[in-house]
Amino acid sequence: MNPVLHLSVGRESATDVNTFINTRGVELRGMIDYKVGFYSFIGENQMVNPSYVRDYRINNLTVPGEGFWKGYEENGVDFFTARGYISFDATKHINMQFGHDRFTVGNGHRSMILSDFSPAYLFFKINTKVWKFNYTNLFTQMTADVFGNPSGLTGSSRYPDKYMALHHLSLNIGKKLNIGVFESVIFSNPDSLGNNSFELKYLNPVIFYRAIEQQNGSSDNVLIGADFKWLPMKKVSIYGQLVFDEFLLDNLREGDGWWGNKWGAQLGGEYVDAFGISNLDLQGEVNISRPYTYSHDTPFGSYSNYRQSLAHPLGANFTEFVGVARFQPINRLNITAKLILASYGEDGEGQNFGRNILLDNTTRESDFGNDIGQGIDTNLTFADLTVSYQLKHNFFI
User: Fold this and answer.
1) SS3 state at 60
2) Residue range 17-38: mean pLDDT, rounded
3) Do the Cβ atoms of 227 and 113 come closer than 8 Å?
């Protein structure tokens, strides 16, 4: 059992606002009978963010990475964080987990398949490792929408549910190449009383989700794709992801910009002990997404949880470059530099050019002639330098 304390103070020059983070909590992990492991994290938080995060909260009614929140003083938020799960080995090759947490799939700084950007959710996970295969099944219950205003969310009624089922199969080919394929489906099936229920057909851990989705009338949102990691030489790795939300090969060949050709891609690399300098690691990646990717015609089908993206924080309709340098010149001292350059098409008032995955994609501006970056041309530059020193075990400044 460990106490958790995260205190931070700062100043934003653009708005003359004092920023801060005040987190107090506890982290607990253990094992019962050497068979069942458990983990829990509980934290109480007050926070004042920089203006770009406050703008995100006002526009989306959510705090990035967090769930229910209330307003705190003039510019801040107050929220409670809770994550926890149990884990046990069903067999020598099969591990199962059940709890409330979030996950990421991939090797990059971002993930176009599943990232940890949204808040934690209820999950049941099965991980099977046999020979050179690694097979993951993930079944979740998520939040389709929230209600509130810029001063906080309302907690007087139940938020609507939706569900996700995902499976990812990866294979090691030799010692230098790993390739994987994945499929996920977002769904919600209202019953006669309007309550949302889990579609039991998606519990099958080895079936093709798209076949079930079509059999049900194609009302759900299925994503398919692949990823890889390759070690072309010592200390160098290349990785990538390709995600298809929807596409037609004929339209893709014609290059007519059909809105339904929705896909995202990632290509990146990492260089460990770069240029022979010990503990200097460099990473760079490019992420792109077509307009309307991850969106659907209802909030119950968009690739989101708690009004936050399950994949890339920018949603869709963007091109992004990420560069990260990590250096440990001496023990206990870590330096991380990060540069993010992004270009995306923003939606104007009453418009839907495909960036906001929460918008109903039937409100799209055009069926054809859609290109990455369409809409209000917007450029983003984000630079960050962090120096961290470990004063004593598990205590960082």
Assistant:
1) helix
2) 96
3) yes
Coil, strand or helix at 300:
coil
Q: List the Cα angle 197/199/203 in 5-degree steps.
A: 130
Q: What is the dihedral of CA 353, 359, 365, 371, to 10 degrees?
A: 30
User: b/e for 112-122, b at 16 or more Cβ within 10 A?
Assistant: bbbbebbbbbb
Phi, psi angles (nearest 5°) of residue 353: -95, 5
Is residue 154 within 8 Å of 148, Cβ to Cβ? yes
- DSSP H/E element including 56: helix 51-60
The phi and psi torsions of 79 (rounded to 5 degrees) equal -150, 160
CA gap 63, 145 in Å, rounded: 14
Give me the phi and psi of 51, to 5 degrees please: -65, -35
DSSP line for 219-275: -SEEEEEEEEEEEEETTEEEEEEEEEEE--HHHHHHT---TT-EEEEEEEEEETTGG
202-235 tens-digit pLDDT: 888 877 777 776 666 657 889 999 999 999 999 9
For the beta carbon of residue 186, count every other beta carbon within 10 angstroms: 26
- For residue 238, the model assigns a pLDDT of 98
User: Residue 86 pairs with which residues in a beta bridge?
Assistant: 38, 98
Q: Which residues contact 299 (CB under 8 A, 6 or more apart)?
A: 144, 145, 160, 162, 358
Mean pLDDT of the chain: 93
What confidence tens digit (pLDDT) does each residue in 101-145 have?
A: 999 999 999 999 999 999 999 999 999 999 999 999 999 999 999
